[in-house]
Amino acid sequence: MMKIYNYAAGPAKLPDQVINQIQEELPSVHGSGMSILEISHRSALFENILADAQQDLRELMGIPDNYHVLFFQGGGTGQFAAAPLNLATNHRKIALLDSGHWATRAGDEATKLGFSVDTLASTKDNHYQSLPHLDDKQDLSGYDYLHLTMNNTIEGTAYHQPELPSNTELVADMSSNFLAETYNVADFGLIFAGAQKISVRLG
């Protein structure tokens, strides 16, 4: 059978060895006699799988001990609401760099929830053919965080180095380049990603 490769925006291609391991362990994960599709999410077996996944991410990304690794439902877009609801509790104000479709969606969701969203820079006028950047002299102390979409799949642009605000937290949507580039996690207050797009499968 001819091998077919998917070059769409997602989901990402899996290595053959990963697919082979899934095939081998699907009937009996870790020799348990049960499929991964059947085990309880409260079982010790599942807790061990979850702990292994968290530790693997820590090692792959160099995540410091004072950061938590959390897995949620809702994908990356779910964090458009969760981030402001959990982090914008002081000023209820969010700064945004408008780099394209997903940055706009994040700002719109926060606005619907009653938060004030200020677009500090945008490249909408040139149809997002370039990236907006922070003004080095801009005071962001009145904002709870700066929202940054690290990779804009639709527009074909990416921040290979994050825009670093000196006086507020940086929240980054890495749904389109999660684990594809190396960043210093300590530069960010929060990193989130819809993992199925580039790194793993749901379920």
From TrEMBL:
UniProt catalytic activity: 4-(phosphooxy)-L-threonine + 2-oxoglutarate = (R)-3-hydroxy-2-oxo-4-phosphooxybutanoate + L-glutamate; O-phospho-L-serine + 2-oxoglutarate = 3-phosphooxypyruvate + L-glutamate
Domain Aminotransferase class V: start-end pairs: 4-198
Listed cofactors: pyridoxal 5'-phosphate
Protein's pathway: Amino-acid biosynthesis
Pfam families: Aminotran_5
Xref: InterPro entries: Aminotrans_V_dom, Pser_aminoTfrase, PyrdxlP-dep_Trfase, PyrdxlP-dep_Trfase_major
Record flagged with keyword Transferase: yes
Superkingdom of origin: Bacteria
RNA-binding in keyword set: no
GO cellular component labels: cytoplasm
Job of this protein: Catalyzes the reversible conversion of 3-phosphohydroxypyruvate to phosphoserine and of 3-hydroxy-2-oxo-4-phosphonooxybutanoate to phosphohydroxythreonine.
Name of protein: Phosphoserine aminotransferase
UniProt organism field: Lentilactobacillus kosonis
